[in-house]
Design a protein that fits this description.
It is a single chain. This protein is α+β, with helices and mostly antiparallel strands and 691 residues long. It contains 21 helices and 29 strands. GO terms for molecular function: RNA binding. It is found in: Nucleus.
Length: 691
């Protein structure tokens, strides 16, 4: 009903919990509505109408009992909210009609009752509110407009406003005033695009956390019902795999609505409580902002329902998608309502966004969730304009193989390698060589490296070292998407560093390259400190056990020094890789170990003399154990053992023993197998402990 400034319906309410400035913040239900009609033209007031409301959970706080004077027994006899709202509508309409008026203005003492109580509860209970609750005037704002020196709006009360004009009756506040500051509540959320160049006030943005993964922008807008969200102001956050992570950034029309949204912290969406925090405009633009003209044109059609399709075959065309959706869910403007997500080089990602003109068409499309297109099942979800921007931004900014900054002092090698992706799992080296055809002669010796998964099975990936970057480029041009058996294989040019990262345990996915744990600061190889220095000298009996022939050059025993403890180092990848094709190059390390072996040698001076040899030995052992199938990749540089023997070793703290952890042993391995493994090394095994 359109408002009429001469007729006011003064409206008041209370909840079963907090009231006043915290009304609606505790998500408690409405238990009382009071209203009175005021005829400003005739300066008459109607009868005060009061209705009790029976909540679903009949429980009153002490504050509520004190302020309202109501009891649980009284509420048990009351009517539910939907019935009371109908009574309100009928009673007000009849009384206004009796005054000869056709419309009225709903007047409240602050917006909390309408925005934080009436609309949220009606939304949860799926109630249709009368039109008057979508447009109202705030008595405090109107008073502040007339008396700006009376203080901030939030601090105004009816007694203070009366005192300001030295009157006692609120009716006389505006004898000849024409109300103009009408507040509105949006009927529905408006989707839209957001540009990265747009200015977003940080005082209008919040972050909602704990959302159900299937929630859409409309669901979030419904959670914040009563508050006005800016057009396109809901941005669902995605994780590194492009899936929703249960968070969203929401932008409101002003800071007042943002502050009221913060009061809904830990309110419920279904059975889940939602956390609400402050956020910044920069965070919102990072998620929702876009620069693509194609996306802007796609999202320029207003009042459209957006559906995201995931898992499309890479060969799917626009006509395939339209045929899959069928005539019962027509796409807006046909092929113009489809947006395929692609990588920077034009390769499809398997994602697409579709526009529908109405909710009915979108619902029909969602019924095809997990139905088959080609040989793949397709997932369909509700989406948002911000999600379209976010997905496009992520994929368009993703390099083919994401590279990490090289370690200091390590030069970046040329892109003289190629990566094969999508190999048949039955493919062997011979199949790859046949696939390469005439380019086989440009492969370096031992330059084909199959990548296996954690179970030692083919992962569908392989790396090939070419003789030059030009040759690698030619292979990508000639062999990309060429068929091998019944599958097409993708071929990308990459560098030796990128290949090394993968072979050391890194992973490649659509989001780029995830480095191996050994390249992460938090998982850097540990420093093994020497055991405390010992003062005991080599005994005659001990010296007899270890004769000089065991050493390349006998050394004179030296007293222990307090030099820094030695560390066991990890040899970096060598430029030329010679690897066994059966090795698992994606082994993750370091991992927990299933078997622990203790090597305990009590002859300190012998350990001192064999310092370099033992370090090389332990380095090799640790390399084997941390990545058991990449022995040659982590092997010590050639000649390191001989160099350690031939050259004087730096002083090292004597050690009473050394601890070696072994991982990756066969489940059938026993103590005898472990002893055989160490056969040939001049060590004494004191204890073997299994875990």
């Amino acid at each position: 009903m359109a408002s009429h400034s001469d007729t006011l319906v003064v409206f008041f309410g209370a909840t079963a919990g907090a009231n006043g400035g915290k009304l609606g913040s505790d998500e408690r239900e409405i238990i009382l509505l009071v209203w009175q009609i005021v005829d400003l033209h005739e300066k008459k007031v109607g009868k005060i109408q009061q209705r009790l409301i029976k909540p679903d959970t009949i429980e009153l706080t002490d504050q509520c009992k004190e302020e309202t004077g109501l009891s649980v027994e009284e509420l048990c006899k009351a009517e539910p909210l939907d019935t009371v709202l109908q009574q309100f509508q009928q009673a007000v309409s009849a009384e206004v009609k009796a005054l000869g008026r056709s419309s009225y203005t709903l007047c409240v003492d602050g917006p909390l009752l309408i925005r934080q109580a009436i609309h949220p509860e009606a939304s949860k209970k799926n109630l249709v509110l009368p039109e008057c609750f979508y447009s109202f005037v705030d008595l405090k704002r109107e008073f502040h407009k007339c008396c700006p020196n009376a203080g901030p709006v939030k601090d105004l009360t009816l007694p203070s406003m009366c005192a300001s004009v030295i009157i006692k009756q609120p009716l006389c506040l505006f004898p000849d005033h024409k109300f103009s500051l009408f507040e509105t509540v949006k009927y529905k959320f408006e989707s839209g695009a957001c540009s990265k160049t747009e200015a977003v006030d940080s005082e209008t943005v919040i972050r909602a956390r704990g959302l159900p993964w299937q929630s859409s922008d409309q669901d979030i807008a419904r959670f914040f019902k009563g508050l006005n969200i800016a057009k396109g102001g809901v941005a669902l956050c995605l994780n590194t795999q492009g899936r929703r992570n249960g968070e969203a950034l929401v932008r409101f029309i002003n800071s007042e609505h943002r502050d009221m949204a913060l009061e809904r912290h830990k309110h419920h969406m279904g059975s889940r409580y939602i956390e609400v925090y402050k956020a910044t405009g920069e965070e919102f633009l990072k998620i929702a902002g876009g620069t693509s003209n194609e996306v802007a044109q796609f999202l320029s059609k207003e009042n459209q329902v957006i559906i995201r399709m995931r898992g499309l075959p890479f060969t799917a065309t626009q006509q395939d998608v339209l045929g899959f959706l069928g005539p019962e869910s027509p796409v807006t403007d046909g092929t113009e309502g489809l947006l395929f997500v692609k990588y920077p080089d034009g390769r499809p990602t398997g994602d697409a966004f579709v526009l529908f003109a109405c909710e009915e068409y979108a619902q029909n499309a969602l019924k095809k969730h997990k139905q088959i297109l080609g040989k793949r099942y397709i997932e369909l979800f509700r989406s948002t304009a911000a999600e379209v921007q976010q997905v496009l931004n992520r994929y368009m900014s993703t390099p083919l193989i994401s590279t990490l900054p090289p370690p200091p002092m390590v030069p970046v090698s040329t892109r003289d390698c190629v990566r094969l992706r999508g190999l048949p799992y039955t493919a062997a080296i011979e199949d790859i060589l046949e696939f390469m055809g005439e380019h086989t002669i440009d492969i370096k010796p031992h330059g084909v490296h199959m990548v296996l998964n954690q179970q030692g099975r083919p992962s569908g990936d392989a790396f090939i070292q070419m003789k030059s970057a030009d040759r690698a480029f030619m292979v990508t041009q000639k062999c990309h998407k060429k068929m091998m058996k019944d599958r097409y294989v993708e071929v990308f040019q990459c560098s030796a560093e990128e290949m090394s990262f993968v072979l050391m345990g890194g992973t490649l996915n659509r989001s780029g390259l995830s480095p191996p744990p050994c390249k992460l600061p938090c998982l850097s190889p540990p420093t093994y400190a020497a055991f405390p220095a010992q003062t005991a000298m080599l005994s005659t009996e001990a010296a007899a056990l270890y004769q000089p022939p065991l050493l390349a050059t006998p050394r004179t025993p030296q007293p222990p020094t307090h030099s820094p403890a030695p560390t066991l180092t990890y040899y970096s990848p060598q430029p030329q890789l010679y690897m066994n094709m059966n090795m698992n190059y994606t082994a993750y390390y370091p991992r927990y170990y299933s078997i622990m072996t203790v090597i305990h040698i009590t002859q300190y001076d012998f350990l001192y003399a064999l310092c370099s040899n033992i370090i090389d030995l332990l380095t090799n052992l640790l390399s084997i154990n941390l990545s058991p199938s990449t022995v040659s990749y982590f092997a010590a540089p050639p000649g390191s053992m001989a160099a350690a023997v031939a050259q004087p070793a730096a002083p090292v703290l004597p050690q009473p023993g050394a601890l070696v952890r072994m991982q990756g042993l066969p489940y059938s391995a026993g103590v005898k197998d472990i002893l055989s493994f160490f056969q040939g090394y001049q060590v004494t095994i004191v204890n073997i402990t299994t875990h």
